[in-house]
């Protein structure tokens, strides 16, 4: 039996040594615990939370269950669990304090059993603090910075998404930094108005427009886990008169 231990704590991302990883999860985030395998129709994959089976699948997908489907009366997660049918990785969405505990992955292939332990601690963040960080309201023409509130690990891939398009990315292996159209799936919506902090992964949107309103997602990914943190941005009018806005629009396109 092979056993690995990983630690998932709260508020950021950092490594803790060769034998494990720590991740910081704010309540409301989504976290994926990775199996690091691809199914080949012969595996039996089971997930346990505090020794209670919460998810299971066979490699040939003939049997799949999560939460109450696996154990009647076990409704702790109430539809917040997702199993990746290709890898068996488990995602907990909208994490809460009650999700704290020990998650165990057991992969059985013939007579071989591999186990991996994830210790998850999700801490409540005061609503005012959470809203200040994750909900931004700005006026058109201003700049806004979306700060993930984490310490970037050199092994992590960090990507920012808007309307399901990757608009910014930082990776170390191989080293890559891109914003907007430089990214594989990017477009010209932001037209050089994005700035990415290489140390923290913070994303700044400059000269913001009303069409930039929406949900921005930060994904922090490595081989053992991934975290998704969402930010809501609302852009209101600048308060200029219609005539002034028309003049600015003409200047933008003619000069």
From TrEMBL:
Keywords: Signal. It comes from Onychostoma macrolepis. Coiled coil: none annotated. SMART domains: IG. Pfam families: V-set. This is Immunoglobulin domain-containing protein. InterPro entries: Ig-like_dom_sf (IPR036179), Ig-like_fold (IPR013783), Ig_sub (IPR003599), Ig_V-set (IPR013106). The lineage of its organism: Eukaryota, Metazoa, Chordata, Craniata, Vertebrata. Residues 20-123, 133-236 form the Immunoglobulin domain. Residues 1-18 form the signal peptide.
